[in-house]
Amino acid sequence: MENAPEPLPDLVREVPGPPSSHADPPPGLALGMTTAPVDVESARRDYAALVDRGLSLDITRGKPSPRQLDLADGLLALPGDVRKAEDGTDVRNYGGLKGLPELRRIFAGPLQVPAEQLLAAGNSSLELMHDSIVQAFLSKLPGAERRWADEASVKFLCPVPGYDRHFALAERFGIELIQVPLTETGPDMDVVERLVAEDAAVKGIWCVPKYSNPTGVTYSDDTVRRLATMTTAAPDFRIFWDNAYAVHHLTDAEAPLADLFALAGEAGNADRVFVFGSTSKVTYAGGGVGFFGASEANLAWWTGLIGKRTIGPDKVNQLRHAQFLRDEDGVREHMRKHAELIGPKFAAVDEILTKELGESGLASWTKPTGGYFISLTVPSGTAKEVVRLAKEAGIALTPAGATHPYGDDPEDAVIRIAPTYPELAEVEEAIRGLVVCVRLAAATKK
């Protein structure tokens, strides 16, 4: 039959739905709160006035603003007349699967991976995560008994609230996603340790360990130690350590993060850790460099397979990044400029929410010291309505439920706020409008 859709490849499984996506009802996860009564008529009048303003505001995605991208425009004049890397590699030619040593050295410290075990690739860390999963389905990981494609089921643990792109990527390949509460110190390790010890189908866990998306939480030393040393039923269990915000501080007080890579190695679990990072929110989001850090065995597995797909990364781009950022102090200096631009936006969100909702009992929110997001918790059962009301008023928000696998927030209470891209005045206007929508949703909740 003409134009019939092509069948999905065997490694793409039927995606399991939300009913099987929870470990146990997660305690303390975005629970609804006791709220003070809201005057319905007053809330409706305020909302009608908001709609009448005809706004068009967008705080959906954590993108760098144009002003942030301007900070890296010096890249466009580089690498100048330089053609060779420090090891003599002609960056214009093929080869060099591991990337340029000078750039790997710059990010070895922030990503907490020895430079010789850190690979620099294309512009996207998400691409590296995708390829890691694909290769695990197609070829046995070090320590694995079989390919993931040959397993009866593959499951990942998902700390929630979490990153929607992680969930969507795993769902694409039919991986069953199990929600685990994210606490102020990281994932609930009592739940994590139980699940990984009792079920060999649990092959991985998604982690954004520093300034986590969307809460801004940084994992505690104890959480990192337990992740590194816990007993797992699956010999090929992997921690997908997406250290996306390793250098994205909003203040000079940089949040400390224990070294998972070193701790896992000391515990005899070096192969357990896949580290990911990128310059996507450091320089150019569409023209940066992604990083993959792993044990020697994992890197040999990776490069042996990826060599079938590519002859090497964009080393010209890597050289210009090494020249532009110079060293670890250069990265820190550059990121202070980012903080000067986006810090006031985070402060404005907190100031407005505190003034308008602080004593109302209608909401709670995180106050991150780094990263790109704020997590807003509204009364249970109202997040979707808040997002709907905001959309009708011309304020685009990330869909309610995006912070959970399958879009299934059991409490319908979490909303992710992304304040980085719009101008400060637009952020302030959007948050004031959001407050109006929170009040109306609470007032009319049945």
UniProtKB/TrEMBL annotation:
<dbReference type="InterPro" id="IPR015421">
    <property type="entry name" value="PyrdxlP-dep_Trfase_major"/>
</dbReference>
<feature type="compositionally biased region" description="Pro residues">
    <location>
        <begin position="16"/>
        <end position="28"/>
    </location>
</feature>
<keyword id="KW-0045">Antibiotic biosynthesis</keyword>
<dbReference type="InterPro" id="IPR015424">
    <property type="entry name" value="PyrdxlP-dep_Trfase"/>
</dbReference>
<dbReference type="Pfam" id="PF12897">
    <property type="entry name" value="Asp_aminotransf"/>
</dbReference>
<dbReference type="GO" id="GO:0008483">
    <property type="term" value="F:transaminase activity"/>
</dbReference>
<dbReference type="InterPro" id="IPR015422">
    <property type="entry name" value="PyrdxlP-dep_Trfase_small"/>
</dbReference>
<keyword id="KW-0032">Aminotransferase</keyword>
<keyword id="KW-0808">Transferase</keyword>
<dbReference type="InterPro" id="IPR024551">
    <property type="entry name" value="AspAT_Ic"/>
</dbReference>
<protein>
    <submittedName>
        <fullName>Aminotransferase</fullName>
    </submittedName>
</protein>
<feature type="region of interest" description="Disordered">
    <location>
        <begin position="1"/>
        <end position="33"/>
    </location>
</feature>
